[in-house]
Write a structure and sequence with these properties.
The chain has 610 residues and is mainly alpha-helical. Helices cover 59% and strands 2% of the residues. A 3-stranded mixed beta sheet has the order 1-3-2, with helices on one face. The longest helix has 34 residues, at 239-272. The chain starts with 11 loop residues before the first helix and ends with a helix.
């Protein structure tokens, strides 16, 4: 899973252009970096008039996405907007929505038939993004501006993505800190509008938020999460300036941040929380079933409805239970599958004792994977990645791990962020499949390879179509077998458990949002079929409630990639090579599943001709 951020709820196209995550704010790219995204001069000179118009349009829209979502600019490594947040005033949101509609009309005015095949793919991808951004406007998601995983109360985490090597960088962060009161006030306006419209998040999720807001209300400014960058200032900034910046930061915390968050706490606790809805389904919102149907189509990039997806999930769960039973027998465990799950959730041998030991364990797994990558790909990405901890203030309410893509100009590596909260709930048997998914050859491969797409516009190099992205991530877990990594039966159990987890998602997500399931039913179904710990199960189910439909993308995308692989094997016979197939899947960058299928069909035909 990649990570997203706060302002995405109010910036439709910017949200779709940004490559996720899930609990920061939002982020984009730098002027020098943007120059590097342009095609080579020779390629630009060879473009047709229609192609030149198209690429000029892409460049303008990319710049708009950065300007309108400063957090997404930060995310991409563009420092031009590092001193501000997205404007969440209703009139600003309306202006962005109008600009998306106008952009779709401008795109449709370009003659697609006059474009090269590569530009047609770029055109179709952007058309898909714009169509969905415009369709999404009807559901008024901005009226629910508070999430337990991404909102103004977690805005400090954006500092993870900002450079802090010179005084200018700290002054940009100070400007962002000073602008938090305005962001809070804009959020309060949207919260109250949501209350009036009957558009509120489920209370069971909002119960997590008061503690998050409280963490921002500190007596000692140096203990503020926003102050963390000032605790590790580089020696290249002279001592007098360091002291001045630290003093200013403490003053901003004391005089602006703490009062703003006190205001947010009062309104949230006294006015908002008691009036949030007691239901959990997206379908319980005004126009909710149409909203969920849209999300299912959007996240899977298919036309499948909730009933079809639910049925696929049930079939996959049944298949994987048979495989889990067989593996349980292989380990020699005497007892039922439920008892085996309990053993794997509780036996101390499967857990690290300290956060540091857990982090060291993840880094060791990554080093174990790296040398085996040439077995599954001929083209390894140039951008490096690292393994680091999820920020402590986010860890209790977020997932087991996530991937943060590197900057488009190469100034920031990719990061595999792992959850060290309560190491006694993080079993070692899940570490290998999780690392294959989030790091290599999973999300890091797809995002880093995407940045290397030749002559592609910036939005294509950073694209994130969820079914493609998460489908590849889940498929990458299975590549551990071809890499010879699953030599331990408990690691293989972890791989099966992770696959079962994504099959269960199809059942639980559609059950919650389209079939009337309660949260308790969803938790029970999860416990019965997946050996994950209670901490993870609760966070996962709450994630599906918070982000309806997103969890459907993983298994649907993986099944499509596996189907295409079988098709390639059957068509090519002895000429089939797994490395070539995997590189062909990654060669498009992130695209909707129908575009991936068409690409692989063309690739198979080309292989047959050679």
């Amino acid at each position: 899973m990649r990570r997203t951020t706060l302002a995405l709820l109010a910036t439709p196209l910017a949200a779709l252009l940004a490559p996720l995550l899930v609990a920061l704010l939002a982020a984009p790219l730098a002027a020098p970096a943007l120059a590097q995204t342009s095609a080579a001069p020779s390629a630009a000179l060879a473009r047709s008039p229609a192609s030149q118009t198209l690429h000029a349009f892409f460049a303008e829209e990319w710049e708009r996405s950065l300007r309108e979502s400063p957090e997404n600019a930060t995310f991409q490594g563009d420092a031009r907007y590092n001193d501000r947040w997205t404007d969440l005033r209703p009139e600003a949101i309306a202006s962005r929505e109008a600009a998306d509609r106008a952009a779709l009309a401008r795109l449709r005015a370009i003659d697609r038939n006059a474009l090269s095949p590569a530009d047609q793919l770029h055109y179709d991808s952007f058309d898909w993004l714009l169509r969905h951004a415009v369709e999404r406007q009807a559901f008024r998601e901005h009226l629910q501006p508070i999430s337990h995983r991404r909102s103004v109360q977690t805005a400090d985490t954006l500092a993870e993505l900002m450079p802090f090597s010179q005084a200018t960088h700290y002054r940009q962060w100070l400007a962002r800190m000073a602008a938090i009161p305005a962001a809070v006030d804009q959020t309060l306006v949207l919260m109250r509008a949501g209350l009036a419209a009957g558009q509120t998040p489920p209370r069971v999720l909002m119960n997590r938020v008061p503690a998050q807001i409280a963490a921002q209300i500190v007596d000692d400014p140096a203990k503020s999460p926003f102050y963390r960058p000032f605790l590790r200032m580089p020696a290249s900034i002279d001592a007098a300036e360091r002291s001045a910046l630290q003093a200013e930061a403490q003053a901003v915390v004391r005089e602006k941040l703490v009062p703003a968050y006190r205001r947010l706490a009062q309104v949230f606790n006294d006015e908002y929380l008691p009036r949030t809805r007691t239901t959990v389904a997206a379908s319980a919102l005004p126009g909710g079933r149409a909203y969920y149907d849209f999300l299912a189509r959007y996240y899977t990039s298919t036309a499948m409805g909730a009933d079809d997806i639910h049925a696929i999930g049930l079939r996959e769960v049944a298949r994987l239970r048979v495989a889990l039973e067989a593996l349980k027998t292989e380990t020699g465990f005497q007892g039922t599958l439920a008892e085996f799950f309990t053993f794997l959730r509780t036996d101390p041998r499967f857990f690290h004792r300290t956060p540091q030991a857990l982090l060291d364990g993840y880094r060791a797994v990554a080093k174990r994977i790296d040398p085996e990558l040439p077995k599954i790909s001929r083209l390894l990405p140039r951008l490096p990645y690292g393994v680091r901890a999820i920020p402590a203030n986010l860890a209790p309410d977020t997932t087991t791990a996530y991937y943060m893509p590197g900057a488009i100009d190469g100034s920031r590596p990719g990061w595999y962020a792992v959850n060290l909260y309560k190491p006694e709930t993080r079993p070692t048997w899940e570490m290998l499949p999780l690392s294959l998914h989030e790091a290599v050859p999973g999300h890091h491969f797809q995002f880093a390879r995407g940045l290397e797409l030749p002559d592609a516009p910036a939005f294509r190099r950073t694209a994130y179509f969820v079914a493609y992205g998460e489908g590849w991530g889940l498929y990458a877990e299975q590549l551990g077998h071809e890499m010879g990594l699953y030599d331990d039966p408990y690691d293989r159990f972890g791989a099966l458990t992770y696959e079962m987890w994504r099959a269960v998602r199809l059942v639980v997500d559609t059950g919650l949002h389209a079939r009337g399931w309660t949260r308790e039913q969803a938790l029970a179904y999860f416990r019965d079929n997946v050996a994950k710990t209670e901490q993870d199960i609760v966070n996962e189910v709450d994630r599906y409630i918070d982000n309806p439909g997103q969890a459907l993308a993983y298994k649907i995308g993986e099944l499509k990639i596996l189907e295409l692989r079988r098709r390639a094997q059957a068509a090519l016979g002895s000429r089939y090579d797994l490395r070539d197939f995997n590189d062909a899947v990654l060669a498009t960058g992130s695209v909707p599943l129908p575009a991936l299928e068409a690409h692989i069909e063309r690739w198979i035909a080309a292989q047959q001709r050679h």
